[in-house]
Specification:
The complex is a heterodimer of chains A (87) and B (195). In chain A, 79% of the residues lie in helices and 0% in strands. With 87 residues, chain A is mostly helical. Chain B has a single domain, classed as Cytochrome c oxidase, subunit III, four-helix bundle (Four Helix Bundle (Hemerythrin (Met), subunit A)), CATH 1.20.120. Chain B has seven helices and no strands. In chain B, α2 packs parallel to α7 and α5 packs antiparallel against α6. The radius of gyration of chain B is 19 Å and the shape is elongated. The N terminus of chain B is likely disordered. Classes of the chains: A mainly alpha (87), B mainly alpha (195). The interface between A and B is large, with 49 and 46 residues.
Chain lengths: 87, 195
C-alpha cells in the first residue's frame, strides 16, 4: 500500500482525477462552457491530461525522438484545431 | 557511467508496429474531432441545445473510471516486470472490471437517451454523439479482450519477466488500453463540457 502511494504513477493518476474535476466544475458555471476563456482553459487542461497519459503511462517521455515529436505534434495540432473551431 | 547511459537511452514501450497503429487511430480521431468542431461552428445553436440533453455526470464518472483503469494497468505492468505475477493479474482484472463498469454506465446512458426518444438520425449533434462514443466503445471492448489475454499471459507458463517478448507484448496491450483512456479524455470535454 505504501509503495502504491509513493509511486509516481499514483501521483499522476491523482493529478488527472483532480484536473478532470476542475474541468467539470469550470463547465458548470453555466450548463456548458461557452465563453472563449472557459473553452480555452478546458481544452488546455484536456490536452495537458492527454500528454500526461502519453508521456507517463505510455512511456513516451523515454521514447525515441520520432515518437516524442509525433505525439507532441498531435497534441499541439488537436489543441490549435479545436481552439480555432470553438473560438 | 553505465547507469547514466541506461537512463538516457531511449526506450520504446511495446512494439513499434503497435505505435503506428495507435498513432493512426489518434489521427483518425483528431479528424473526427475537427469535423465535430467544424459542424459545431456551423450549427452552434442546434449543437448547444442538443448538448443540454446530455448528462455530464455520466461523462465525468466514465472519465474517472477510465483514468483509474489506466493507473491499474500501469501498476499491473510494473508488477509483471518485477515478476509479481499474481499481483499483475489482479491489477489487470480490476482494470477489466473498470472497463465493465464503463460499459454498464454507457448502456444506462444510451438507454436513457433512447427512452427519451433521441436517435442517431435526429440531428448532426446526436450523430456525432453516437458515432464518437460508439467507436470509442468498440475500443473499450477490444481493450477489455486485450486485458483478458494479458492477464492470462502473466499467469501462464510461457510468461517470463526477463523475456523481452513477454514484456513487449504486455506493454503493447497496456498502451492500447491507455489509448482508450486518452481518446475519452478528449471526447468528454467536446461532447459534454464545451459548446
Amino acid at each position: 500500500m505504501q509503495n502504491l502511494l509513493n509511486d509516481k504513477a499514483t501521483h499522476i493518476w491523482l493529478l488527472l482525477m483532480g484536473l478532470s474535476l476542475s474541468s467539470w466544475i469550470l463547465s458548470m458555471q453555466s450548463s456548458r462552457a461557452t465563453g472563449f476563456v472557459s473553452i480555452a482553459i478546458i481544452l488546455v487542461i484536456s490536452l495537458f491530461k492527454a500528454r500526461l497519459v502519453l508521456r507517463n503511462f505510455m512511456d513516451v517521455a523515454e521514447a525515441p525522438a520520432w515518437l516524442r515529436y509525433s505525439v507532441d505534434a498531435w497534441v499541439l495540432t488537436v489543441f490549435i484545431g479545436l481552439l480555432a473551431f470553438f473560438s | 557511467m553505465n547507469t547514466a547511459s541506461k537512463k538516457l537511452a531511449p526506450h520504446i514501450s511495446g512494439e513499434a508496429s503497435m505505435w503506428i497503429l495507435l498513432l493512426g487511430d489518434m489521427v483518425i480521431y483528431a479528424l473526427l474531432f475537427f469535423m465535430y468542431g467544424y459542424d459545431h461552428r456551423q450549427e452552434a445553436a442546434l449543437f448547444r441545445e442538443s448538448q443540454t440533453t446530455l448528462n455530464a455526470g455520466f461523462g465525468f464518472a466514465n472519465t474517472l473510471i477510465l483514468l483509474t483503469s489506466s493507473w491499474l494497468v500501469v501498476m499491473g505492468l510494473k508488477s509483471a516486470k518485477t515478476n509479481q505475477r499474481a499481483s499483475a493479474a489482479n491489477f489487470f482484472k480490476y482494470a477489466m472490471l473498470c472497463g465493465a463498469a464503463f460499459g454498464v454506465s454507457k448502456f444506462i446512458e444510451y438507454g436513457l437517451k433512447i427512452n427519451s426518444g433521441i436517435e442517431l438520425t435526429d440531428n448532426s449533434f446526436y450523430m456525432y454523439y453516437f458515432l464518437l462514443t460508439g467507436f470509442h466503445f468498440i475500443h473499450v471492448i477490444i481493450g477489455m479482450t486485450t486485458l483478458f489475454f494479458m492477464r492470462r499471459h502473466v499467469l501462464g507458463e510461457n510468461f517470463s519477466a526477463s523475456s523481452d517478448n513477454s514484456i513487449s507484448g504486455l506493454e503493447s496491450g497496456a498502451n492500447f488500453w491507455h489509448l482508450v483512456d486518452l481518446l475519452w479524455i478528449l471526447i468528454f470535454p467536446l461532447l459534454y463540457l464545451i459548446g
